[in-house]
């Protein structure tokens, strides 16, 4: 009974795998089909004719030789000439068909590359959160897919067409040889089976290797991009980091190469052995034909035909096996694409999400919110290391890609239902620990706290980049998880610490925060409020100046980029403005001017300010003090000063450092 149950579950598993494969074939097939239905049909026609040409040419050669060697003179000679013309015609047809096929494949590949990239970009919209960015496994996969978009469609097209053409060619040559001896045809084909099996096995191992190598490849790209890119150019040069990252590149390559070489050696050995077997059978086929000549059983044309056909069949069968194995590997990659596209989003959207109505300042409430970042990779990592170090002896037939493991929701749900264990344990892991506060519509609240106390994390939860582990976050009295994510986001404008520096014009840099692009008056007004108007007027083409020297544009200073980011946030008619360190890079005058226009900027909006500068913090109606993920104090500036706690300490420290400096200057 147990055995039957085992068989049934194996069958079910295989059935599921087959269903998945069909889904992948449909997805990729559909994508290629859409890139040019007529071209696809033409391609099949070209492949068919190109496939039968070798068999035709063999047959024509036979006719020519038979005609020339016939004793009847004129009639056979004439026939031979006809075949010679046809043979010559087939040579021309072959060249034309090959060129046409190449052209169609190129056109279709390029068009499918667009489609596959669009699919990937579209799938990106299904990943509303940021959790995936923190997960190594996901990043490895995504990087591999991103790179594959450049070559996958072209490879699928080229290898699949080569496979198809080869198959037709093989079948037609089998037909020719079967005419002489069906047994010889069967033996020749059968002799390539071990070779085909080994090729498939190799394709599987190669696939496993590529999967395991994803992280190392990403590491190598990382080291290379750091050295060749602009992002770290200053430090790379100043600290002489070239050797360090070159070494990282080399060491990572070395780790991969050892396994790669082992795999290739094994492949070469197996290919030689199985190829030797298939070649030996073909050689015996030759001897057999020679034996037939002795027996005067066949014509000279037949001799030429079969000698060539034996060679051609043996070669074609191996090529079909090669292409088949490569096609299999490519479809596995395509399978990963499908899994990525179909992956569950990292942020739960309610079954029937409610609208969050824009147009009035937002009310916000945190109720006993706990949050910890998840490192979903950790458990798998050890396994992965072990796997990658091991010799890839046997493929276990496990078809599950890593992407199929994206069961983040379940993890989140489990965590949701479990309250944090003990306070101490929570203290080690939770970035936010029972945070409760509320911000009334139109209020401006500041959050202060030491580095790493959880201020930015709180903002990330408000923008719904992550989901709280437990507790509730309410927007206008509605739970954030029950609202349409885009609705909530459209109502928020933010200046993040790691603000975007887009390689587009100044105008676009500001206006892209809003759907209504290009409202000139509004654009200039917000730029002026953010203190950017003055900067823009000094640029070569004012608001139309391209930014980013890598695009032939202008670079801005850190503070100017920050002003631009503030302008962008203000350009959006948001109900809630978040400013995470908005004045960190601003000079004193710019900060002072921003302070002066602050009341006007924030009119009719709810504001959350995060800053280490107390001059900025003082602008708020109310201040929350965050320490190790907990709110420890709350009140106005004067209330908190009076309290003489954490806030007052921090304030005095900052003020003292100024006073000390002033004192030193005064004392000379
Ligand atoms: N993506 C992440 N994955 C894991 N841990 C993170 C992540 N982002 C932040 N953390 C951790 O969460 C804690 C709080 O970080 P957060 O950025 O919220 O601090 P912060 O109060 O804004 O600090 P700062 O004043 O330096 O900006 C830190 O200990 C940090 O290491």
TrEMBL record:
Annotated keywords: ATP-binding, Cell membrane, Membrane, Nucleotide-binding, Transmembrane, Transmembrane helix, Transport
Mode of membrane association: Multi-pass membrane protein
Residues in ABC transmembrane type-1 domain copies: 41-314
Keyword Cell membrane: yes
GO cellular component: plasma membrane
Region (Disordered), start-end ranges: 378-402
Top-rank taxon: Bacteria
Organism whose genome encodes this protein: Brevibacillus gelatini
Record's keyword annotation contains Cell cycle: no
Localization terms from the record: Cell membrane
Lineage of source species: Bacteria, Bacillati, Bacillota, Bacilli, Bacillales
SMART domains from the UniProt entry: AAA
Molecular functions (GO terms): ABC-type oligopeptide transporter activity; ATP binding; ATP hydrolysis activity
SUPFAM superfamilies: ABC transporter transmembrane region, P-loop containing nucleoside triphosphate hydrolases
Protein name: ABC transporter ATP-binding protein
């Amino acid at each position: 009974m147990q055995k039957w149950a085992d068989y049934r579950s194996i069958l079910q598993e295989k059935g599921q795998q087959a269903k998945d494969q069909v889904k992948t074939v449909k997805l990729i097939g559909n994508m290629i089909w859409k890139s040019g239905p007529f071209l696809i049909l033409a391609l099949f026609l070209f492949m068919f004719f190109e496939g039968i040409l070798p068999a035709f040419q063999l047959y024509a050669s036979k006719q020519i030789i038979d005609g020339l060697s016939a004793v009847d003179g004129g009639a056979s000679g004439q026939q031979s000439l006809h075949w010679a013309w046809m043979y010559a015609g087939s040579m021309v047809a072959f060249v034309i068909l090959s060129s046409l096929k190449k052209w169609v494949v190129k056109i279709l590949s390029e068009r499918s590359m667009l489609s596959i990239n669009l699919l990937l970009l579209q799938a990106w919209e299904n990943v509303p959160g940021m959790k995936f960015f923190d997960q190594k496994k996901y990043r490895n996969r995504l990087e591999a897919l991103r790179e594959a978009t450049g070559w996958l469609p072209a490879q699928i097209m080229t290898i699949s067409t080569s496979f198809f053409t080869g198959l037709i060619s093989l079948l037609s040559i089998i037909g020719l040889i079967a005419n002489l001896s069906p047994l010889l045809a069967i033996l020749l084909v059968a002799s390539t089976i071990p070779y085909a099996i080994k090729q498939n096995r190799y394709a599987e191992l190669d696939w496993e290797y590529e999967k395991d190598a994803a992280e190392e490849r990403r590491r190598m790209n990382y080291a290379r991009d750091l050295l060749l890119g602009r992002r770290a150019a200053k430090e790379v040069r100043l600290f002489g980091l070239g050797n360090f990252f070159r070494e990282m590149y080399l060491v990572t390559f070395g780790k991969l190469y050892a396994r790669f070489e082992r795999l290739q050696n094994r492949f070469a050995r197996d290919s030689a052995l199985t190829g030797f077997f298939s070649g030996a059978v073909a050689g015996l086929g030759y001897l057999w034909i020679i034996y037939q000549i002795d027996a005067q059983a066949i014509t000279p044309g037949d001799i030429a035909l079969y000698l060539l056909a034996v060679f051609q069949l043996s070669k074609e069968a191996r090529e079909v096996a090669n292409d088949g194995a490569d096609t299999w590997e490519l479809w596995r990659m395509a399978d990963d694409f499908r899994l990525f596209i179909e992956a569950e989003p990292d942020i739960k959207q309610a079954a029937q999400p409610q609208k969050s109505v824009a147009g009035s300042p937002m009310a916000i409430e945190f109720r006993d919110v706990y949050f910890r970042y998840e490192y979903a990779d950790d458990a798998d990592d050890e396994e992965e290391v072990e796997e990658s170090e091991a010799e890839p002896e046997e493929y276990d037939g496990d078809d599950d890609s890593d992407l199929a493991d994206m069961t983040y929701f379940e993890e989140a749900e489990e965590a949701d239902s479990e309250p944090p264990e003990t306070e101490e344990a929570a203290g080690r892991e939770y970035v936010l620990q029972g945070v409760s506060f509320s911000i009334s519509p139109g209020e401006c609240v500041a959050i202060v706290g030491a580095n790493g106390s959880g201020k930015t994390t709180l903002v990330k939860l408000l923008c719904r980049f992550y989901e709280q582990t437990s507790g509730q976050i309410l927007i206008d009295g509605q739970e954030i998880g029950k609202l349409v994510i885009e609705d909530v986001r459209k109502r928020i404008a933010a200046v993040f610490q790691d603000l975007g520096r887009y390689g587009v014009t100044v105008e676009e840099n500001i206006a892209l925060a809003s759907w209504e692009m290009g409202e000139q008056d509004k654009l200039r007004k917000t730029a002026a409020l953010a203190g950017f108007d003055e900067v823009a007027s000094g640029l070569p083409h004012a608001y139309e100046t391209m930014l980013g020297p890598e695009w032939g544009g202008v670079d801005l200073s850190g503070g100017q980029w920050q002003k631009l980011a503030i302008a962008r946030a203000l350009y959006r008619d948001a109900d809630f403005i978040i400013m995470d360190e908005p004045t960190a890079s601003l000079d004193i005058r710019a900060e002072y001017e921003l302070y002066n226009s602050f009341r006007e900027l924030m009119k009719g909006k709810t504001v959350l300010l995060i800053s280490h500068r107390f001059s900025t913090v003082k602008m708020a109606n109310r201040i929350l003090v965050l320490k190790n993920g907990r709110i420890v104090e709350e009140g106005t500036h004067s209330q908190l000063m009076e309290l003489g706690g954490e806030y007052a300490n921090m304030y005095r420290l900052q003020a003292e450092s100024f006073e000390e400096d002033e004192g030193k200057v005064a004392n000379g």
